[in-house]
Amino acid sequence: MSTKDFVEKDYYKVLGVPKDATEAEIKKAYRKLAREFHPDANKGDAKAEERFKEISEANDILGDPKRRKEYDDARALFGNGGFRAPGAGGPGGTFNFDLGDLFGGAPGGGQAGGFGGGLGDVFGGLFNRGAGPGTRTQPRRGQDIESEVTLSFTEAVDGATVPLRMSSSAACKACSGTGDKNGTPRVCPTCVGTGQVSRGGSGSFSLTDPCVDCKGRGLIAQDPCDVCKGSGRARSSRTMQVRIPAGVSDGQRIRLRGKGAPGERGGPAGDLYVVVHVDAHPVFGRKGDNLTVTVPVSFTEAALGGEIRVPTLGGPPVTLKLPAGTPAGRTMRARGKGAVRKDGTRGDLLVTVEVAVPSELGDKAREALEAYREATADEDPRAELFQAAKGA
């Protein structure tokens, strides 16, 4: 599309929305029209296909806040082919001329109105994004890096700072990242320095791929560097101290922004993704933000009740009150003794009671238990079980 067409087309009218329409209203209008005029729903209808292209084109501009502002500014400045300047021309301060002269140069090879190369470059970012002779190569974001780290159970709960040795792509030191022995690469003629080429249809169906000739760099080495073979990148190893936040869980993937491979030509660094593995603990387990522990108690403690001491992770033991008649498998809660949450508070320690059965009994203990059995001979702990089974 020419810049002239861009200025003269009313994309708001194409989508049927007012100029002050919100992003949601624009998206809703586009989706409705796209369904109505989609080529799959209008096979063989050339008019519907052309209409669909216009709709997609309008959405590409109005659906992007930055491009929409550029479009609105351009329309305000050059609307209807007239340049509005205070005191110019007639009463309205407007004089008219051919937009083709302004953007493409005056007839006969001269420049229009003394604007040098024309004002097409002003809007080059909207179509082809400035692709043309003299285009400067664009900064490139560094690659993302993924690494793994294994923590102890305690480190995962409390957080830890661990060293990570990483290998990534960085600017080649031999050629200072240019890929050329003499440091004078040339702009790729295929993508004109953008590092990308477009293919396919128009509007939202245009596809952009990395340029195969320069491999997305926008530059081609005239005399390729012996170290990086003209790529401008070389493998680099470094050790970084990485802070793993408290409360991380096994298998969690942490993103550290800007800690990946360095960018090119002033581009930002990529991100570092760290996959965390957590070793098991011989005593404690994990359930979300809570820690778990199973505590054995004697039969008399469970039956008569009492106080029991429970270990905590990295801290002093806590004392819990065990109610009389506590059954095996009951879980009690020690508040604030669990893992660290995102807000800095701690979860709880879930204490599950397990009645310990002695493997050997002394004479006195055996006599006492025999007496207890005689005293409770009329009680059947399985009576309700059989009754419920019959009812089912």
From TrEMBL:
A zinc finger (CR-type) spans 159-237. Zn(2+) 1 binds at C172, C175, C225, C228. InterPro entries: DnaJ (IPR012724), DnaJ_C (IPR002939), DnaJ_domain (IPR001623), DnaJ_domain_CS (IPR018253), HSP40/DnaJ_pept-bd (IPR008971), HSP_DnaJ_Cys-rich_dom (IPR001305), HSP_DnaJ_Cys-rich_dom_sf (IPR036410), J_dom_sf (IPR036869). Binds 2 Zn(2+) ions per monomer. It is found in: Cytoplasm. CXXCXGXG motif repeats lie at residues 172-179, 188-195, 211-218, 225-232. Residues 10-75 form the J domain. Zn(2+) 2 binds at C188, C191, C211, C214. Its cofactor is Zn(2+). Residues 159-237 form the CR-type domain. SMART domains: DnaJ (SM00271). Participates actively in the response to hyperosmotic and heat shock by preventing the aggregation of stress-denatured proteins and by disaggregating proteins, also in an autonomous, DnaK-independent fashion. Unfolded proteins bind initially to DnaJ; upon interaction with the DnaJ-bound protein, DnaK hydrolyzes its bound ATP, resulting in the formation of a stable complex. GrpE releases ADP from DnaK; ATP binding to DnaK triggers the release of the substrate protein, thus completing the reaction cycle. The J domain is necessary and sufficient to stimulate DnaK ATPase activity. Zinc center 1 plays an important role in the autonomous, DnaK-independent chaperone activity of DnaJ. Zinc center 2 is essential for interaction with DnaK and for DnaJ activity. Belongs to the DnaJ family. PANTHER family: CHAPERONE PROTEIN DNAJ 1 (PTHR43096:SF54), DNAJ HOMOLOG 1, MITOCHONDRIAL-RELATED (PTHR43096). This is Chaperone protein DnaJ. The gene is dnaJ.
